[in-house]
Amino acid sequence: MSDPLRHEEEWSVHISSIALVGAIAAFVLLLFAVVLVLVAYTPILDVFPGYRTSAERQHDELVQNVMRIDSLERRMSDMLTYNENIAMILEGRTPVVRTPINEGDTTRLDKTLVPPSEFDSLLRLQMEGDGDYSLARTLRSREQGGKLMFAAPVEGIITRHFSRNDNFLGVGIQSAPNSPITSIDDGAVVDVVTGGEQGTVVTVQHFNGFVSVYRNLSQVLVTKGQVLKSRQVIGYNAMRDNDSKSNPLVEVEIWTEGKAIDPENYIVF
After folding, report:
1. What's the pTM value of the predicted model, to 2 decimals?
2. Buried b (16+ CB within 10 A) or exposed e, 71-97
């Protein structure tokens, strides 16, 4: 029989459902944080079967980087070959094709001359003969007072002059919006480059080794390999920036024998 006067301490804990849910959530968050730290700063995942180790991942990244470098080397080699062939064509020589040949542990290049196509032969006859596109005929017709002159590519005002010190190898012409840009003389389009910082760039090969370059164009109307007549429209000027919307800037360069010359000495703007 118990003594009613006996004094003893009794403990009781009351946990509500909300407190229980909160405690479980806090424990889950703490566990997630611990797992996240272990995964991020320790190689704990490497001990799990089927998981790729850090060494394997580094090996795969190294293989991918080597493949990218090899691809870049091939592209650079193709670009250099293309530029060399263009230079050879401009000099009147026959370009070559470089074919890599594997010989065991070594690789050599087989240089084969590119035979002229039927179109190329016809173009050479037109440019070298006495027809409408004859370079010799055009050269005689463009000589004035013993000095070779070209047609102005666009109507406008020269705002930037030729300067080797500033590495500006042409003239900058401010013209009205949507002004047509024309070829300074008869020739053939050798290159059309789009998507650059200077808009579309068109390069035209003329007689006697002269080359004209037109920068910051839009709505180009010519294609690579197309034969042009003097004053034939190449395209239209493009907007350079917000400050030149009223008068877009067109840059024109003239090259001969691999050197840039001042267009103002050969064109009356």
Report:
1. 0.48
2. eeeeeeeeeeeeeebeeeeeeeeeebe
Instruction: Establish if 1 belongs to a structural domain.
Output: no
- In this structure, are 101 and 156 located in the same domain? no
Number of folded domains that form the chain: 2
> Residue 174 pairs with which residues in a beta bridge?
157, 249
CA dihedral 189, 178, 260, 152 (to 10 degrees): 90
Which amino acid type is present at position 37?
Answer: V
- 218: containing domain: 146-265
CB neighbourhood size of 190 (10 A): 16
Q: Is residue 155 one of the residues assigned to a domain?
A: yes
Question: Which tens digit of pLDDT belongs to each residue from 33-66?
Answer: 988 887 777 777 666 666 666 677 788 888 888 8
Residue 21 belongs to a domain: no
**161: Cα within 13 Å, side-chain hemisphere:** 2
pLDDT digits (tens, 9 = 90+) for 151-162: 899 988 899 999
pLDDT one-digit tens code per residue, 130-173? 555 555 555 544 555 555 788 899 988 899 999 999 889 999 99
